[in-house]
Amino acid sequence: MNSIQFSAMPTAEAEALWNGGRDAYDRLPETLVSDGEGFPCRHCLRNIDNGEELFVFAYRPFPELQPYAETGPIFLHKHPCQRYSADEILPPVLTTSRDFIVRGYNENDRIVYGTGAVTAINKIPAYAEELLARPDIAYVHVRSARNNCYQCRIDKVKAPALAEAGAFT
User: Fold this and answer.
1) Where exactly are the structural domains of the chain?
2) Phi, psi angle pair for 59, to nearest 5°
3) Distance between CA atoms of 138 and 59, rounded to whole angstroms?
4) What integer pLDDT is reported at residue 2 of this predicted model?
5) How far, CA to CA in Å, does 69 sit from each of 3, 66, 97, 110, 121?
6) Which conformational region is residue 92 in: left (phi greater than 0), alpha (psi within -120 to 50 degrees), or beta?
7) Which InterPro entries does the entry link to (predicted)?
8) Dist CA 112 CA 155 (whole Å)
9) Hey, is 58 helix, strand or coil?
10) 78 contacts 54 by C-beta, under 8 angstroms
11) CB 122, CB 94: distance < 8 Å
């Protein structure tokens, strides 16, 4: 059983944009047409195919403004797509580059210094597990090693409570 799960942009955030909402800078998303490569959708975690319309917008994957709440450009299919749900395996979007930055954050959404590392694709799960085993790491971000753009989040798999597992029946 895996101890980590990959999480895409929440559907509620994507739906807000699909329904005319504004981005982290209070601007409407821009519409572009994919030329085939380099447009990873952060909701389905797949590349946006050649000729498909997409949104580019400012995204802040943190609950509130604070000094470590990085904001940057990301892509989203212009029309609704299914959220990535095979959370136990490496998402397709993470196979499009040689490496990514993997970095840990604490429960207050602050970067945990010394955790950020450019990581080869095949080493992302192991490094994320290593970071998430630490008590000071609440979750991990995967970001572009070239542009620092947010790709997805990695969390610890929550173990079922003992009562839910039948220990107190």
Assistant:
1) 4-156
2) -125, 135
3) 20
4) 67
5) 26, 5, 24, 8, 25
6) alpha
7) DUF1203 (IPR009593)
8) 15
9) strand
10) yes
11) no
Amino acid at 50: N
Q: What is the pLDDT of residue 158?
A: 74
Is residue 95 within a helix (H) or strand (E), and if so which, with residue range? none
Q: Is the pTM of this model over 0.85?
A: yes
Using alpha carbons, select from 93, 92, 22 the residue that is nearest to residue 59: 22
**Which parts of the chain sit beneath pLDDT 50?**
1, 161-169
Q: Which residues contact 18 (CB under 8 A, 6 or more apart)?
A: 76, 78, 79, 80
50, two tokens: 């050649």
In total, the chain counts a number of residues equal to 169
b/e map of 18-30 (b: 16 or more CB within 10 Å)? beeeebbeeeebe
